[in-house]
Amino acid sequence: MWLFTVHWLACVDFMALSLLPYLDTESSNMGTTLSGLTIGTFAKAAGVSVETLRFYQRRGLLSEPDKPYGSIRRYGQADIARVRFIKAAQRLGFSLDEVAGLLTLDDGTHCDGARQLAESKLADVRGKLADLRRIEKVLATLVRDCRASHGTVSCPLISTLQKH
């Protein structure tokens, strides 16, 4: 009975331990950098799913660290920063192909190249905004026409869509 109790207590104590986040154990930077992260912890720290990380690895946006013999791959702060860079670029409307181009410029010394990519993206965004304004204008007119057509047999919106 005593052996069972000791074993059970050891299991309870083990289950109470938290390795999230798994911090670097060097005293010089303890608590300031994340390293040695498993892919699940890495995903959580980067704010994405494990599937997203695997997808980025397949696309060549994120390298897959070496796997030590008999162990698991570990990720660090630089990997987290790279994923955050990718997500920030996506929020600005860059496709993953465009993000790949930006990643080749991420050392900060290629401002002209980055500016050209941003100018191209800005032109795309402005074109989309112009398209959205045209769509808004047409839809507003159709909604107004629908409100004004009480008692008519044909809905102006449906009629317009059927004509085009």
Please outline what is shown here:
The protein has 164 residues and is mainly α. The protein has helices at 2-16, 39-46, 50-59, 77-91, 96-103, 111-148, 156-163.
Question: Can you walk through the features of this model?
Answer:
- With 164 residues, the chain is mainly alpha-helical.
- Helix content is 62%, strand content 0%.
- The chain is built from 7 helices and no strands.
- It has helices at 2-16, 39-46, 50-59, 77-91, 96-103, 111-148, 156-163.
- It is elongated and about 75 Å long.
- The relative contact order is 0.06.
- Mean pLDDT is 80; it is low at 1-32.
Helix content range: 55-70%
Give the tally of structural domains.
Answer: 1
Q: What integer value in Å does the Rg equal?
A: 27 Å
Shape, principal axes of CA atoms: elongated
Give me the CATH architecture, please. Orthogonal Bundle
| CATH topology descriptor | Multidrug-efflux Transporter Regulator, Chain: A, Domain 2
Taking the alpha carbons of the first and last residues, their distance comes to: 82 Å
Q: What would CATH call the class? A: Mainly Alpha
Runs in which pLDDT lies below 50 for 5 or more consecutive residues are 1-32
Structural class: mainly alpha
Q: What is the number of beta strands?
A: 0
SSE run:
HHHHHHH
Q: Tell me about the largest β-sheet.
A: none
- Number of discrete helical segments: 7
Strand content: under 5%
Mean pLDDT equals 80
